């Protein structure tokens, strides 16, 4: 049984286009009412504007189904001044207003316009216009020479198997302008695109704001999935007499998927905690003159690696390995991971590659001892933030703040640690802590705490529904669906 289908033009019902509705029958489309779709999109836009005070406007576009991938603007919300209210609707003329644009109209072409929408859909990656003067995918700039504002576009991804199930093997894929199929080598399909506008000079590519949007985009996919699930359950009631066991198995799979997808909340919270950890380590290094940090050691390893990497042919196996090693070391230097996760990264991604390079070629033999010494010093550097001797030297902060910050910055958050969020928010209230974006972090954590607190209720309700389903199976009844 197909578990999920892509939503195609809910706007057809709004405009009373019976022909459009009839054309959609038999196509793969997610079953969600227009009101619920718009409400869900409004909630997501409102959430993002709440989490990101420097964001000014949000729009969500619906994408699908394959292979047409029609893009339709669902709704837009713009912040009104500083009063916190939002104006909703679809002001202005847009090519993405119903009936929207088909894939052939907005994909990349040899001589046509380059659209950010085409980039997000084809590559399943975000697009950040942090410098409108250099935005190569601004339609206004290409047509009129006028720049747009700063914005970020994020695709909402859902697994293709969830969308098409067993029919995936027969599914026609969209093609690029060269006629080559896209998405065949990925597990995901794009079902929507989120576009958020910002005040000038408040975002950069890959910053915390774009990461938060990426995390929250997953919740939009989860919400659409859960809304479609309700319709699936109603359909299951009709078929229960002949497909009771099959429906039960599908229900278990889909409800458990919702709970799994809700785990994104912990990931977002851990992202906020990693920022707290990064700021703590900055304080520590500032107070401990001469203290090594991982960025310096990893940068030195990359310098040693680059000395001979250019001597290999680009397609040589060791050249490919060396470039991968360079990326892994640069990424580890950038991320504020927990010490044990940093060690896992070191042991699984970096040390094995160095071991192979040193064993299979003599090019790095002259610096082998330095490489090995740097690799051995890294685990200790990963843990500097928890070392009492270093913590005691952060004399510009009170002792209780030092103790709390050094502990809270190194927790791996899970739903069993919800009370610690209150401790983190209380810590951020202290005026002695002057880290950047402190107020923004407080607001985000407060919002996420409210979300994570509902997970036990969702689990309880899910278990109750499943229990009722099993009882109905035993008794030959189907009243369990009235709980959904």
Summarize the SSE layout with pairings:
Layout: H1 11-14, H2 18-24, H3 34-51, E1 55-63, E2 71-79, E3 86-89, H4 103-106, H5 116-123, E4 127-129, H6 139-144, E5 150-159, H7 160-164, E6 188-198, H8 208-261, H9 264-287, H10 294-309, H11 317-334, H12 339-360, H13 368-382, H14 388-392, H15 399-408, H16 419-429, H17 438-452, H18 455-475
Helix pairs in contact: 3-8, 8-9, 8-18, 9-17, 10-11, 10-13, 11-12, 12-13, 15-16, 16-17
Keywords:
10% strand; disordered C terminus; 6-stranded antiparallel sheet; 18 helices; alpha+beta
CATH-derived architecture of the largest domain:
2-Layer Sandwich
What is the residue-mean pLDDT, rounded to a whole number?
A: 84
Instruction: Encode the helix/strand succession as letters.
Output: HHHEEEHHEHEHEHHHHHHHHHHH
Spatial shape: globular
Roughly what fraction of the amino acids lie in strands?
5-15%
Helix content: 40-55%
- What structural class do you assign from the helix and strand content? alpha+beta
Q: What is the number of strand segments? A: 6
Q: Can you walk me through this structure?
A:
This protein has 484 residues and is of the alpha+beta class. The chain has 2 domains: 11-213, Beta-Lactamase, CATH 3.30.450; 269-452, no CATH class. 54% of the residues lie in helices and 10% in strands. The protein has helices at residues 11-14, 18-24, 34-51, 103-106, 116-123, 139-144, 160-164, 208-261, 264-287, 294-309, 317-334, 339-360, 368-382, 388-392, 399-408, 419-429, 438-452, 455-475, and strands spanning 55-63, 71-79, 86-89, 127-129, 150-159, 188-198. Strands 3-2-1-6-5-4 form a 6-stranded antiparallel sheet, with helices on both faces.
């Amino acid at each position: 049984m197909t578990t999920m289908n892509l939503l195609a033009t809910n706007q057809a019902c709004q405009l009373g286009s019976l022909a459009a509705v009839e054309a959609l029958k038999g196509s793969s489309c997610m079953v969600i009412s227009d009101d619920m779709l718009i409400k869900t999109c409004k909630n997501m836009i409102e959430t993002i504007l709440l989490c990101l005070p420097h964001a000014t406007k949000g729009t969500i576009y619906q994408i699908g189904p394959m292979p047409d991938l029609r893009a339709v603007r669902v709704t837009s919300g713009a912040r009104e001044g500083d009063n916190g209210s939002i104006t909703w609707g679809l002001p202005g003329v847009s090519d993405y207003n119903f009936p929207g644009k088909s894939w052939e109209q907005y994909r990349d072409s040899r001589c046509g316009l380059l659209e950010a929408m085409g980039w997000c859909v084809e590559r399943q990656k975000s697009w950040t216009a942090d410098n409108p003067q250099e935005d190569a995918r601004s339609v206004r700039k290409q047509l009129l020479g006028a720049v747009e504002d700063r914005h970020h576009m994020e695709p909402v991804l859902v697994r293709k198997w969830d969308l098409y199930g067993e029919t995936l093997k027969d599914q026609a894929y969209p093609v690029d302008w060269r006629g080559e199929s896209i998405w065949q080598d990925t597990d995901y399909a794009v079902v929507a695109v989120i576009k958020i506008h910002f005040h000038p000079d408040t975002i950069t590519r890959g910053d915390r704001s774009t990461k938060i949007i990426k995390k929250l985009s997953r919740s939009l996919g989860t919400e659409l999935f859960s809304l479609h699930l309700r319709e699936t359950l109603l359909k299951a009631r009709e078929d229960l007499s002949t497909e009771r066991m099959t429906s039960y198995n599908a229900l278990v799979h889909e409800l458990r998927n919702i709970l799994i997808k809700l785990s994104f909340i912990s990931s977002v919270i851990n992202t906020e905690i990693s920022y707290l950890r990064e700021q703590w380590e900055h304080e520590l290094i500032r107070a401990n003159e001469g203290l090594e940090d991982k960025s310096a050691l990893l940068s030195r390893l990359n310098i040693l690696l680059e000395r001979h990497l250019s001597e290999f042919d680009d397609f040589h196996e060791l050249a490919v390995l060396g470039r991968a090693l360079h990326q892994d070391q640069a990424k580890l230097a950038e991320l504020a991971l927990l010490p044990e996760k940093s060690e896992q990264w070191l042991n699984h991604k970096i040390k094995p590659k160095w071991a192979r390079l040193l064993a299979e070629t003599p090019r790095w033999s002259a610096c082998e001892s330095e490489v090995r010494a740097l690799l051995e010093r890294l685990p200790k550097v990963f843990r500097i933030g928890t070392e009492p001797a270093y913590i005691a030297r952060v004399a510009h902060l009170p002792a209780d703040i030092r103790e709390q910050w050094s502990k809270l910055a190194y927790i791996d958050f899970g739903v069993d640690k919800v009370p610690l969020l209150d401790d983190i928010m209380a810590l951020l209230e202290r005026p002695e802590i002057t880290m950047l974006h402190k107020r923004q972090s407080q607001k985000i954590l407060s919002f996420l705490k409210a979300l994570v607190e509902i997970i036990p209720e969702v689990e309880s309700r899910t278990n109750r529904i499943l229990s009722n389903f099993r009882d109905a199976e035993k008794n030959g009844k189907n009243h369990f669906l009235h709980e959904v």
